[in-house]
Amino acid sequence: MNIIFIYGAVFIASLVLFDSLIRLLQGVFTRKKHLNYRLKLLEKNEDRKAIYESMLRERAIGGDEHEQLSIWFNRIFAQSGLKIDWQRFMLYGVAYLLVSWLVLGLAFSSVLLRGVLCLSSMVALFILAILFVRSKRINLFLRQLPDALDVMTRSLAAGHPLPTSIALVAREMPDPIGSEFGMLSDELTYGTDITDSMRNMVERVGADDLKLVAISMTVQRGTGGNLGEILSNLSDVLRHRQLIKAKIKSLSAEGRMTSWIMLAFPFFLYLMISTLAPGYFDPIWDSGYGNIVIMVGLVIMAVGMLILRKLVNFDF
């Protein structure tokens, strides 16, 4: 029975590898030809409203709440920038289930326990992957944001109105900020208020620093003032915030590296002892409590890892 799972895992893994290589090559050639994803879609279809609605659907934005798994999950998925691709999700899910089933079979003989662990770990890994992609996308957006504000400042200084300045960012900046400002420009074009449009963009992106831009535009619209000067000052503030974040990360790098080393050390020690003395852990397995020892050890390691990460991660 296991040989069937092995062949299946090899076959699915080959499909996943082939799919990843194809998508990587497509991404390389697409970046050379198109500055951002929205401009790529507009080249195929000039209907801006249709493109805007399709981009919302791809990220599960704007559906009815009863069709969403949860409001929280729908929000983090939208902020990750990932697109709904059920065939790809099914392919990766089946590959993970086959591999995890074979790996867990080395430690657990219960079919029910292995099935529960496979499914629960797949859901947890899926959510963690979305959170990781979301974090990377938000960080990239924040690095691009000061440059986008500079583009808007120069455009406003040249006498262009605000919607034109936003559209200029959408044309001249790469993803993710190019497509996000493009969707903002589409909303303004079709009659959405600037306050509501900025609120929608904050919800789509999930970056706290973007709230400063939204508040600045909203307040300036109500009180007046030089918007170009406001955006220029805000750009300097965001750059200084990023500089402080980089300094804090460099100062805490040793602690973060220590936490990862401490996480990997027990596994390395187990492999080293098993290699040098293959029968060293046999009394634990023969006692029948080996699985319990492993589960307790993993829980303790997870708690210790969370504590260490809390000590070295700072709220900016």
UniProtKB/TrEMBL annotation:
Protein localization: Cell membrane
Q: Please name one Pfam family that this protein belongs to.
A: T2SSF
Domain annotation Type II secretion system protein GspF: ranges: 149-273
Q: Does the keyword Transmembrane apply?
A: yes
Give the way it sits in the membrane: Multi-pass membrane protein
Recorded hits in Gene3D superfamilies, A to Z, give: Type II secretion system (T2SS), domain F
Q: Which UniProt keywords apply?
A: Cell membrane, Membrane, Transmembrane, Transmembrane helix
Looking at the UniProt entry, the stretches that span the membrane are 6-25, 89-108, 114-133, 257-277, 289-308
- Its chief place of residence is membrane
InterPro entries on file: T2SS_GspF_dom, T2SS_GspF_sf
What name does the UniProt record give this protein? Type II secretion system F family protein
